[in-house]
Amino acid sequence: MCREIRDLETSIRDAEGQLERLARDLPIVAQLRSIPGIGLLTATALIAFVGDVRRFKNARRFASSGSTWFLTNACSDSVDASASGSIRHRS
Fold it and tell me: Helices 2-23 & 40-50, crossing angle to 10 degrees?
């Protein structure tokens, strides 16, 4: 069992390395990662889920597209972090 855990940890590190290399080619990932609480996994998953955000004319279109589901249901990259609640609209 300990060997299986070590093997899984190695696989995870390898996958994270691959994501890091892919993320280098996407400046938007670096921008997203500059936001507190958004790390490599959340940033790359958001880009994979949403695609090119420029396809949305404005923030309202983005919100109405269902893409905000990701924002409210994504897990934090931090094991110690926990979040709950909803996204609130600021006037």
Answer: 60
The domain ranges of the chain are 2-73
From CA 76, how far away is CA 83, in angstroms rounded?
Answer: 8
Mind listing the pLDDT tens digit for each residue in 46-60? 888 888 888 888 888
In the chain, the amino acid numbered 70 is F
* H/E stretch holding 4: helix 2-23
For the chain, what percentages of helix, strand and coil (3-state, to nearest 5) are there? 60, 0, 40
Both tokens of 24, joined, read 């280098």
Task: Let me know: does 25 contact 47? Beta carbons within 8 Å.
Answer: no
Does the model's pTM come out above 0.70? no
